[in-house]
C-alpha cells in the first residue's frame, strides 16, 4: 500500500511537470520565417540621355591678326582655301547629355566626353588640364544649343626659325587664348569663328 502511494505521487508530479512545459511552450510568441517587405516604388529612369544633333551654322568672323591686332577680313568663299575640310571634322555631329556628363561624336568616328554643369542657360565643361570650368555653349529660348568653334592657322617668326601652327578651340573668348609672351610680337594668325547650332533629336524636321 505504501509503494502504491509513492508511485501515485510520482505519476502526479510527472503529469504536473508536463502541463507546465506545455503552458510555457504555448505562451512563446510565434516568429514568422520571413518578413513581408513592401514592393519598392518605381523610380523614374534618370539615365535616359537627351541627344542634340547638328542643324546649321553661320560664320561669325574670318580675320587676319598680327598678334592680337585685327589687320583684315576674308570672304566666306576663302574658307575652303585656308582650312580645307577641317571645320566639318572639328564641329560635333551629335551632343549627348547623360546625367552630369556630355558625349560628343564627330565625323570619322572621333568622340570626346566631359563632366558638365549648367548655370541657367550656360553650359560649362570641366577641363582636366586647366582643372577648371569653361563656358562651352548656351541654350536659347527655342531649346537650341549654340556652340562657337574656332579654327586657326598661325605663323610664328623669329630670327632663327619660321614655324607654322594650326589648331581649333571651343568657344574661346578672344585670340589671346592662343598667344604666349614668346610669340606675341611675331605671330600672324588666320582666325575663323563659326557658330554651330544643334537641335533636340526628336525636334529635328
What is the topological layout?
Blueprint: H1 2-27, E1 50-66, E2 69-73, H2 79-83, H3 86-90, E3 94-98, E4 101-105, E5 111-119, E6 122-127, E7 132-139, E8 145-157, E9 162-170, E10 187-200
Antiparallel strand pairs: 1-2, 1-3, 1-10, 3-4, 4-5, 5-6, 6-7, 7-8, 8-9, 8-10
Strand order of the largest sheet: 1-3-4-5-6-7-8-10
Helix proportion range:
10-25%
Rounded Rg = 38 Å
Global outline: globular
The chain-level structural class is: alpha+beta
Number of helices: 3
The stretches of 5 or more residues where confidence is low (pLDDT under 50) are 23-29, 40-47
Can you count the beta strands? 10
State the end-to-end CA separation. 113 Å
Topology as a string of helices (H) and strands (E): HEEHHEEEEEEEE
- Overall pLDDT confidence: 82
Taken together, the total number of domains comes to 1
**Largest sheet data:** 8 strands, antiparallel, barrel
Beta fraction: 35-45%
Descriptive report:
Keywords: Signal. This is Lipoprotein. The protein has 205 residues and is α+β, with helices and mostly antiparallel strands. The protein has one domain. It contains three helices and ten strands, in the order H-E-E-H-H-E-E-E-E-E-E-E-E. It has helices spanning 2-27, 79-83, 86-90; strands spanning 50-66, 69-73, 94-98, 101-105, 111-119, 122-127, 132-139, 145-157, 162-170, 187-200. It has an eight-stranded antiparallel β-barrel. A hairpin with a 4-residue loop joins strand 8 (145-157) and strand 9 (162-170). The longest helix has 26 residues, at 2-27. The N and C termini lie far apart (113 Å).
Amino acid at each position: 500500500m505504501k509503494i502504491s502511494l509513492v508511485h501515485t505521487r510520482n505519476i502526479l508530479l510527472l503529469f504536473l511537470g508536463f502541463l507546465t512545459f506545455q503552458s510555457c511552450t504555448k505562451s512563446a510568441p510565434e516568429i514568422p520565417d520571413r518578413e513581408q517587405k513592401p514592393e519598392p516604388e518605381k523610380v523614374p529612369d534618370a539615365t535616359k540621355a537627351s541627344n542634340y544633333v547638328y542643324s546649321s551654322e553661320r560664320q561669325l568672323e574670318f580675320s587676319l591678326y598680327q598678334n592680337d591686332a585685327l589687320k583684315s577680313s576674308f570672304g566666306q568663299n576663302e574658307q575652303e582655301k585656308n582650312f580645307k575640310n577641317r571645320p566639318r571634322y572639328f564641329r560635333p555631329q551629335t551632343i549627348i547629355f547623360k546625367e552630369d556628363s556630355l558625349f560628343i561624336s564627330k565625323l570619322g568616328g572621333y568622340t570626346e566626353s566631359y563632366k558638365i554643369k549648367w548655370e541657367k542657360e550656360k553650359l560649362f565643361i570641366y577641363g582636366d588640364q586647366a582643372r577648371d570650368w569653361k563656358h562651352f555653349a548656351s541654350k536659347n529660348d527655342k531649346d537650341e544649343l549654340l556652340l562657337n568653334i574656332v579654327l586657326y592657322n598661325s605663323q610664328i617668326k623669329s630670327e632663327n626659325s619660321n614655324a607654322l601652327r594650326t589648331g581649333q578651340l571651343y568657344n574661346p573668348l578672344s585670340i589671346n587664348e592662343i598667344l604666349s609672351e614668346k610669340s606675341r610680337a611675331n605671330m600672324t594668325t588666320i582666325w575663323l569663328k563659326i557658330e554651330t547650332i544643334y537641335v533636340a533629336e526628336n525636334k529635328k524636321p
